[in-house]
Amino acid sequence: MSKFTSLRGFKDILPEESDRWLWVESTAHETFNVFGFSHIRTPILENTELFTRSIGEATDIVEKEMYTFQDWDGKKVTLRPEGTASVVRAYLEHHLSEKIPLSKLYYIGPMFRHERPQAGRLRQFHQIGAEIIGDLDPRQDVELLSLLTRFFERMQVTDLTLEINSLGCPACRPTYRAALQSYFEKYLPELCEDCRRRFKTNPLRILDCKKEACKAIARNAPSPIDHLCAECREHFKAVREGLYQLAIPYQIQPHLVRGLDYYTKTAFELTTNKLGAQNAVAAGGRYDGLVEALGGPPTPAIGFAIGVERLVQLIDPALVPTSRLRLFLAPLGKAAGAALFPLLLALRRKNIRSEMGNDAIGLKSQMKRADRLGAAYVLIVGENEMTQGKAILRNMSTKAQEEIPLSTLIETLSAKLS
Ligand code: ATP
Ligand code: MG
User: Fold this and answer.
1) pLDDT tens-digit profile of 383-404?
2) Phi/psi at 235 (nearest 5 deg)?
3) So where does L-histidine get bound (predicted)?
4) Is ligand 1 within 6 A of the CB of residue 177?
5) CATH of domain 15-172+228-319
């Protein structure tokens, strides 16, 4: 054991798992591209105020989870806890609306939250997120949800439930907030300390409390669905009809809220029953007020974020395309090593995945290493072969061996292996 270990809640992604990560990422690039999204990469470190403004002061993230510090200039900076605020900041900073009025952007990268580490909950985790900025049409909500479900379908992750709700808008939120407060008022002494505070600052957050006592009380709380204004009601109806039209199954979850303040209208989560307590693999919703709150013109938008660690756990490793070693060169002795070494680069130039053994090591150990690397073929060249101008090619699964002249080695191997 080394003297150093990684920080609690920070995880190494090792080769045994990284194949799945690469597959997730390449499938994301392909799928999001097909749906017309462009890739965006924003910095991991931002001004703290960007997050306090957008996520909201009275949220778990801002109250207790952000990695915030002063840099050497005395500026308050934060490791991003989520992606949307940064994307909207970049959208405004670079006037993307002038170049692409309807901006469809996606990102992949690490996020940081100082939460209690446990299964499915890390302090550095990764999200794949998508945002559609600039259109209020409920069809955008449906398109985004169709992208989300298609992405999981491509990785054959099934048994997911799409839960949707509508959180209303600034027109209907105050009446709903008042209804919530008058409901929870009766139960104030039974609520946890956090929720008693939320009662005043942000009563919607009580619906998201993970404590059993609070969950039991919240079960009969009023739903925002029953307090929607006409516009939000119409919007929610159109989203449901669109999902029906595309045969995307969903459930209405009347108490679903989100941990960030900026959400309006449509909110959703993709959940699984295969991950225990941390059952959400993706979440998102509309945030029609955020662009304006960050200093831009009134601009509707919607997005989601997928938790990559949780998604990776749901993937069947057998489905992941792995590139196996095609050829292991086994030289026996210095002369053979010198003859085979240039061949290694020549094979790699032909995009054939190959490795070479140490010419000072015996055949048995080299074969063992080739086996451990999963090589499909091994090319053996010893002193005998060198004098006779040939090499032995062994098929590792059939054990069949054949002789190949050294003079035509590259041509024969590349024809056989590529
Ligand atoms: P939760 O209710 O699980 O705390 P959240 O509402 O905080 O989730 P979002 O901010 O909406 O989550 O992030 C979207 C997704 O990112 C989540 O559904 C989850 O899959 C993943 N995620 C969020 N926080 C973590 C974390 N600490 N560790 C690993 N994955 C996470
Ligand atoms: Mg959370």
Assistant:
1) 999 999 999 999 999 999 999 9
2) -60, -45
3) 82-84, 113, 127, 131, 258, 262-263
4) no
5) 3.30.930.10
